[in-house]
Amino acid sequence: MFTVSAVQAFKDNYIWIVHNQSVTVIVDPGDASPVRQYLRQYKLRPVAISFVHTITILAEI
After folding, report:
1. Which of 49, 38, 45 lies closest to 22 in space, CA to CA?
2. What percent of the residues of the chain are helix, what percent strand, and what percent coil, each to the nearest 5?
3. Do 17 and 26 contact (CB within 8 A), yes or no?
4. Sequence spans of domains, the chain
5. Disulfide check for 44: which of 10, 24, 55, 56 has CB 3.0–4.6 Å away?
6. pLDDT, the chain, mean
7. How far is residue 16's CA from residue 56's CA, in Å, rounded to a whole number?
8. pTM assigned to the model
9. Residue 47, SS3 per DSSP
């Protein structure tokens, strides 16, 4: 069974950490500090990081 945890990042965003006893996946990390704290607290090691948002920057030339 997997545990899905919402870790607050910034004022209005969450980072999702999905894990079981042997696998940890971080979804959409926007801030490393709360992720590191959660991983240390629960003694987890990530095997993958998933980025689900794409930011496109358009510049006028």
Report:
1. 45
2. 20, 35, 50
3. yes
4. 3-50
5. 24
6. 88
7. 22
8. 0.78
9. coil
